[in-house]
């Protein structure tokens, strides 16, 4: 699951960058408020600041520098995270699994003929990306994963139970997918596992054909508003 590990690392970096941005926003608000109060105090009591060695606005400058440092850190971390996510997805999308098989046949008697044919080994990934969008397939050496960046697709479905704690994150998609497996595809339940996080849903299996069947049927269920709403009614929030 090397590809999944990369996704988790870059997703956590992305989340960390968002936290930094929140801190920057809060710090800017505090700096503006304190600067206004500082200036008003300076205007009303200039003598108090004249006896100080540093100008009255020194603290404001220091706060501005700290905010600038946080902003630079946010930009660097955000760029690393976005570049890593894009690169990992690109690498996983280029994986193919093809093999050539040569067959020979011989005729009885004194004459012999040899025939060769190249055939492609059936690959569960072939053509599946178009069928399961916005889910996407990640092919690994001994397993495969299907993932979804949450927050847009079927977000309105999770909003119907927002008061119960559903947010539409990766763990909520896990819950919905498990209800689907239990009721609609019980024969696949033992071979499909989940490794989701807050910003991404992820299901994986060493049985690639079983995973292909699962995601195609699950995507089809998601497109049936009546069916998916019924399955979601029995999902439990994480």
Features:
single chain; 238 residues; alpha+beta; four-stranded antiparallel beta sheet; 8 helices
Give a written overview of the molecule.
The protein has 238 residues and is of the alpha+beta class. It has 2 domains: 2-93; 128-232, no CATH class. 56% of the residues lie in helices and 8% in strands. It has 8 helices and 4 strands; from the N terminus they run H-H-H-H-E-E-H-H-E-E-H-H. Strands 1-2-4-3 form a 4-stranded antiparallel sheet, sandwiched between helices. Strand 1 and strand 2 form a beta hairpin. Helix 1 runs antiparallel to helix 3. The longest helix is centred in the first third of the chain and has 43 residues, at 2-44. The chain is elongated and about 80 Å long. Mean pLDDT is 82; it is low at 95-122.
How are the SSEs ordered, and which strands pair?
Layout: H1 2-44, H2 46-50, H3 58-93, H4 128-132, E1 136-139, E2 144-149, H5 155-159, H6 170-184, E3 193-194, E4 200-205, H7 208-223, H8 225-232
Antiparallel strand pairs: 1-2, 2-4, 3-4
The percentage helix is 55-70%
Number of strands: 4
Mean pLDDT: 82
Q: What's the number of domains?
A: 2
Order of strands, main sheet, comes to 1-2-4-3
What can be said about the biggest beta sheet? 4 strands, antiparallel
Which percent range describes the beta-strand content?
5-15%
Q: How would you spell out the order of helices and strands?
A: HHHHEEHHEEHH
Shape designation: elongated
Structural class: alpha+beta
Count of DSSP H/I helices: 8
* Rg calc: 28 Å
Oligomer: single chain
Q: Spans of 5+ residues with little confidence (pLDDT < 50)?
A: 95-122
What's the end-to-end separation, in Å? 24 Å
């Amino acid at each position: 699951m090397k590809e999944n590990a990369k996704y988790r690392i870059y997703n956590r970096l992305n989340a960390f960058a968002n936290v930094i941005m929140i801190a920057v926003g809060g710090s800017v608000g505090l700096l503006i408020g304190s600067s206004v109060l500082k200036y008003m105090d300076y205007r009303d009591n200039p003598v108090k600041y004249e006896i100080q060695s540093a100008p009255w606005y020194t603290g404001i400058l220091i706060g501005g520098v700290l905010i600038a440092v946080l902003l630079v850190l946010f930009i660097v971390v955000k760029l690393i995270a976005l570049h890593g996510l894009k690169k990992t997805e690109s690498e996983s999308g280029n994986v193919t699994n093809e093999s050539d098989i040569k067959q020979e046949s011989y005729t009885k008697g004194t004459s012999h003929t040899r025939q060769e044919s190249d055939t492609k080994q059936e690959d569960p990934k072939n053509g599946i990306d178009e069928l399961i969008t916005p889910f996407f397939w990640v092919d690994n050496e001994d397993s495969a994963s299907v993932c979804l960046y949450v927050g847009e697709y079927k977000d309105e479905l999770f909003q119907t139970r927002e008061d119960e704690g559903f947010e539409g994150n990766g763990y909520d998609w896990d819950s919905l997918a498990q209800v689907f497996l239990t009721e609609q595809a019980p024969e696949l339940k033992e071979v499909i596992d989940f490794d989701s996080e807050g910003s991404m849903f992820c299901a994986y299996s060493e049985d690639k054909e079983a995973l292909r069947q699962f995601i195609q049927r699950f995507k089809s269920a998601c497109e049936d508003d009546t069916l998916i709403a019924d399955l979601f009614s029995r999902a439990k929030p994480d």
